[in-house]
Amino acid sequence: MPAPRTAVVQIRSHGSGPPGNVFPVLWGEISSALLQRGWLIDSEPGGRLRAARERSPGEEVGHVERWDPPHEVRLVWKADATGAGPAPRLTVQCRAEGAGTLVRVEHSGGASQRGAPREEQELGWLASEVVVPLLLAIAPGRLVEWADDRGGRRPSGPASRALYQEPVYHRPGFQAILEGLGLRPDDVLLEVGCGGGALLKRALATGCTAAAVDHSADMLAVASQQNARALADGRLQLRYGDAAALPFPGERFTCAVMSGVLPWLPDPVGAFREVFRTLRPGGRFVAWTSTPRTYGTPAAGPKRRGGARLYDDRALVRFARAAGFSEIRTDHPDLRPVARTVGVPRHHRFLFGPEYGVLLWARRGRAAGRPDLPRGAALPRRVRSRAGRTLGSARTG
User: CA-to-CA distance for 245 and 281, rounded, in angstroms?
Assistant: First the structure.
């Protein structure tokens, strides 16, 4: 009896450097991409492939059939009861070729269902699930969107992990945020979009407690490493989640921050409403973001569909008002002296002038026993705007 046929799809790519350098990066990217899509894989012989969000270990849906880094890994799914033929397998190989590495990805099995012509199913699956998605993935616009996701919207990969561990270009904004908040040991801070946890680290140094959310598994891993002591001491909680559906109960926090997050939010009002919901009465909210003047500079590039979205003061005030905040103020501090102090290269310090950044300050109602922020009290003289305006420049009440 002839052996059952199986569909085979191969993808070949070439990486620079030997397999020992290429494989760890490639496998790290595969593991990270799986986690972003809700899957966990154990990087070891016989390791399990399973859903990441199960509360219990759960049933294995696949496993590592061969684990031979840096040369080959083979994954196999459990065969579905409705399927016909061998279980689906994916093999990733790295082979030395000249001064570089040939990467070969091969799929076999699992491409047909009972009751239908095998060849028709194999070709249909190949066209709709492999060829067309690959074609769309390499379109110029999609490549730019992917780069935006990887570097800003949902940072991932070795370069982003290194960058966001201590992001020098974010440090001036961090200082403006912290001076605007005036944190105290009795504060309970929320950070939406915590990235690598650099701002959290500075905030926790004031003695406050904190919780943070991010939708990048890579960033949460870096934030965990940077703030391991606070996590162990119970002063910090990190959660994977969405800014539009924060995984925290209402009225938990005394203050909240966003730094560099607004340009990537699909629904700023929805995110602000979630911040408002989780703040206690009288809670403060401070956000730092770039202004539309930043378009066309190294910090934002050209304005384009699907890219970073930058807002002026009126839009920010409108978002905060729609979310329910009763006191809303903005300011354009001159952070160029701070940029020089923290080590921003000279040719980029102009990006921290007052026309390129805006600080939004808002409060949920008023809390008895805690006075309002005096006009201009949040920012010391060295970070006030050139015009001398402080947080009262666009106030609504």
Answer: 20
**Closest listed residue to residue 42, CA positions, set 20, 57, 55:** 57
φ, ψ of residue 329 to 5 degrees: the values are: -140, 150
CB 26 within 8 A of CB 15: yes
Question: pLDDT over 70 for what percent of the chain?
Answer: 83
Q: Which residues contact 257 (CB under 8 A, 6 or more apart)?
A: 177, 181, 189, 190, 191, 192, 199, 203, 285, 286, 287
Query: Per 3-state DSSP, what percentage of the chain is helix, strand, and coil (rounded to 5)?
Result: 35, 25, 40
Q: Are strands 327-331 and 253-259 parallel, antiparallel or unpaired?
A: unpaired
In the numeric block, the tokens 């926790």 are attached to: 204
Please report the pLDDT score of residue 140 as a whole number. 82
Distance CA 312, CA 104 (A): 48
Give 2-43 pLDDT, tens digit per residue: 444 455 566 667 767 889 988 988 888 888 888 778 888 899
Q: What backbone phi and psi angles, to 5 degrees, belong to 147?
A: -65, -40
Instruction: Express as a percent the part of the chain with pLDDT over 90.
Output: 51
Q: What is the pLDDT of residues 338-384, one digit of tens each?
A: 999 999 999 999 999 999 999 999 999 875 544 444 333 344 333 44
Q: Set out the domains of the chain in order of their start, with CATH numbers.
A: 8-47+57-138 (3.30.530.20), 166-383 (3.40.50.150)
Chain CA centroid to CA 327, Å: 29
State the first-to-last Cα distance of the chain, in angstroms, to the nearest integer: 82
The pLDDT tens digits for 58-74 are 567 899 999 999 999 99
> CA distances (Å), 208 to each of 121, 178, 230, 259, in order?
59, 12, 10, 18
